[in-house]
């Protein structure tokens, strides 16, 4: 009886060992997604840097951008099966496999993930799926990655979390600097949850008056270019009302005044995104600015200025404008289009 029990115990231990080996040999999938691409890009950079510290040659690092029309699922299959001469470990970064592809192309990629033998028992390969925007959550590829991958969603930070992030970022770039609460409130009201702009403005503020230990409200008022200014509102109002001539005139006035085109584009995208957030309340019957502020956690001044524009907009039209601006922003940053020409064409096409 004792011998039988020992044999049983030994079998269980061996079975557990083989299961552990099989699990540890599976390929690792990492899924990074969400509207806050600043933090998701930081996470991606950390993963990449950790890999290149161990693989200084970079031979095991590969990229595929599915936002590129020429990219195919077979290219991913080839990367999975490839064996490097100088590195046994592989890190494959896949960009916009969901948002950059049609449902049919996503199914092709999903088929490889599910059936290709090279994705099995491969402890040396990690695949990061990075989405540069919030992907649709009803597709098969999204559901597969959501269930199989180590996932992290990066939603836009709001209210207290946004303030905490700003304070932590300031501490990292300027350990000896602090910022007044009123100054921080003014800064966030000006930048919103756009961490690219917020980090840029914090960098500027931390360098100004280097000897001063505290960033004041006066510093913010002097240095921070508020994204909620009359020219931007006039341009967006012309844009949303279909007044192409005024929209084009204001755009080129801003460019002639020395405004960076990517800054202008980010302003437009930010404001239309804000219109959608406020509109979600407005189109559902919540018209009180106080109630909208409580629901959206947006600055009352922004809400008051936006409501007049929403009276001339439908949800469909606002979403269409936002999608177009987001596409221009992505294509311009990846060098596919000239941003000024692309915005001009977009305005004319409205």
Kindly describe this structure.
The chain is of the alpha/beta class and 350 residues long. The protein folds into three domains: 2-153, Rossmann fold (3-Layer(aba) Sandwich), CATH 3.40.50.300; 159-223, Helicase, Ruva Protein, domain 3 (Orthogonal Bundle), CATH 1.10.8; 230-349, Up-down Bundle (Zinc Finger, Delta Prime, domain 3), CATH 1.20.272. Helix content is 61%, strand content 9%. The protein has helices spanning 2-24, 37-54, 73-81, 103-115, 140-148, 159-173, 181-191, 195-207, 217-223, 230-241, 244-256, 261-282, 289-296, 300-310, 315-333, 339-349; strands at residues 28-33, 61-65, 90-95, 125-130, 150-153, 178-179, 214-215. Strand 3 (90-95), helix 4 and strand 4 form a beta-alpha-beta unit. Helix 7 (181-191) packs parallel to helix 9, helix 12 (261-282) runs antiparallel to helix 15 and helix 13 crosses helix 14 (300-310). The longest helix is centred in the N-terminal third of the chain and has 23 residues, at 2-24. The N and C termini lie far apart (84 Å). The model is unreliable at 8-25 (pLDDT under 50).
């Amino acid at each position: 009886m004792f011998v039988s029990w020992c044999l049983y115990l030994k079998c269980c231990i061996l079975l557990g060992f083989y299961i552990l080996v099989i699990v540890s040999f599976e390929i690792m999938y990492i899924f990074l997604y969400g509207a806050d691409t600043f933090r998701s890009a930081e996470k991606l950079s950390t993963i990449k840097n950790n890999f290149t510290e161990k693989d200084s040659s970079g031979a095991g690092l590969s990229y595929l951008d599915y936002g590129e029309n020429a990219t195919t699922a077979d290219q991913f299959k080839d990367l999975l099966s490839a064996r490097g001469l100088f590195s046994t470990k592989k890190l494959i970064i896949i960009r916009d496999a969901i948002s950059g592809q049609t449902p049919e192309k996503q199914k092709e990629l999903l088929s490889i993930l599910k059936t290709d033998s090279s994705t099995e028992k491969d402890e040396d390969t990690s695949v990061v799926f990075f989405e540069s925007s919030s992907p649709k959550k009803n597709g098969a590829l999204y559901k597969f990655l959501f269930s199989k991958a180590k996932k992290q969603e990066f939603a836009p930070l709001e209210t207290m979390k946004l303030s905490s992030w700003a304070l932590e970022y300031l501490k990292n770039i300027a350990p000896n600097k602090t910022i007044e609460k009123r100054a921080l409130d003014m800064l966030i009201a000006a930048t919103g949850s756009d961490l690219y702009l917020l980090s840029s403005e914090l960098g500027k503020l931390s360098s100004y008056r280097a000897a001063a230990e505290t960033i004041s409200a006066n510093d913010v008022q002097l240095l921070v270019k508020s994204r909620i200014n009359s020219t931007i509102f006039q341009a967006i109002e012309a844009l949303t009302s279909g007044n192409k001539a005024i929209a084009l005139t204001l755009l080129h006035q801003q460019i002639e005044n020395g405004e960076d085109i990517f800054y202008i584009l980010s302003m437009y995208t930010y404001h239309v995104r804000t219109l959608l957030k406020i509109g979600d309340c407005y189109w559902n019957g919540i018209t009180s600015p106080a109630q909208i502020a409580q629901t959206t956690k947006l600055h009352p001044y922004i809400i008051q200025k936006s409501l007049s524009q929403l009276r001339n907009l439908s949800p469909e039209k606002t979403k269409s404008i936002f999608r177009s601006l987001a596409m221009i922003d992505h294509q311009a940053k990846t060098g596919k289009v000239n941003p000024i020409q692309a915005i001009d064409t977009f305005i004319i096409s409205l």
